[in-house]
Structures are given as structure tokens and as C-alpha cells.
Amino acid sequence: MKKFAFAFAALFVGVLSFAQIEGKWKTIDDETGKAKSIVEITKNSKGQYIGKIVQLLAKPENNSCVKCTDDRKNKPLIGLEIIRGLNKDGNEFTGGTITDPKSGKTYKCTIKREGDKLNVRGYVGFSLIGRTQTWQKVN
After folding, report:
1. DSSP code, position 19
2. Hey, where are the domains in the chain?
3. What DSSP string runs through 2-17?
4. Which of 72, 84, 128, 137 has CB atoms 3.0–4.6 Å from 116's, for a disulfide?
5. What region holds the DUF2147 domain (predicted)?
6. CATH says 21-137 is which class?
7. Could you list the pLDDT tens digit for every one of the 139 residues in the chain?
8. Residue 38 pairs with which residues in a beta bridge?
9. DSSP classification of residue 78
10. Cβ-based neighbours of 21, under 8 Å, separated by 6 or more
């Protein structure tokens, strides 16, 4: 009976953590396939998920977001909040935005976790028109 209870508890914790996106993730460029940075996703005081760059893995053209047009303009890339306002909706995280620091463009964002990977989709208008990157969990 103890083994059954332990197995059930382990399965329950595993299922709960499966849909969570909090933690550190290695961003992989969908065009080059190379790792670019480490982004840490946390939940803010409003209960929304945000993501900040905490480490650069490739040397960027600029060390700040020179092409950003909002409050992030000319802010250093380290600490830059690139994901804002995501809310959990079932197994997906939606309703927020993601900013590409290289172009300065901001897109609608949807994230779905599959094991130790995140499928991060940025799009304009409809989700069908956009790009998806797969980020890897950092242990």
C-alpha cells in the first residue's frame, strides 16, 4: 500500500510540473539551430508569467535593445524582460507578448510545454502566421 501511495504521489507531482513553465530555459534560434541565451520564466505579483534574459550564450551585435521602441529601448539585454503577460490556459500559456531583442519587434505569444522543452510561438494576428522556437530546460 505504501508503494502504491508513493507511486501515486510521484505521478501527481509529475503531472502538475509538466504544464509549468517556470524556470530557466535555453533559447534556440529557429533559423540557425544555435543556442542564443538563457531566459528565466517566473510568475509576477499579478499572477502572470514573464521571462527575462539572464545569460547570453552568443555574442550579440549590441549589448542593449537598440531597436526596441517601448520602455525596453536601450536597456541591457541581461535582465531584459522579453516575455510579458502570459496566463495559463489549460496546458498552454497565452495572452502575452514576446519581444525579439535583435529586431525590437513585439509579437503575441503562446507557449506549450512538452517534457523538457517549450514550444514558444510568436505571431502577428493569427497563430497560423508566425514562428515557433523550441527552448530546452536548463538544469
Report:
1. T
2. 21-137
3. HHHHHHHHHHHHHHHH
4. 137
5. 23-137
6. mainly beta
7. 554 444 444 444 444 445 699 999 999 987 888 999 999 999 999 999 999 999 999 999 999 999 999 999 999 999 999 999 999 999 999 999 999 999 999 999 999 999 999 999 999 986 778 889 999 999 8
8. 26, 55
9. T
10. 41, 49, 86, 93, 111, 113, 118
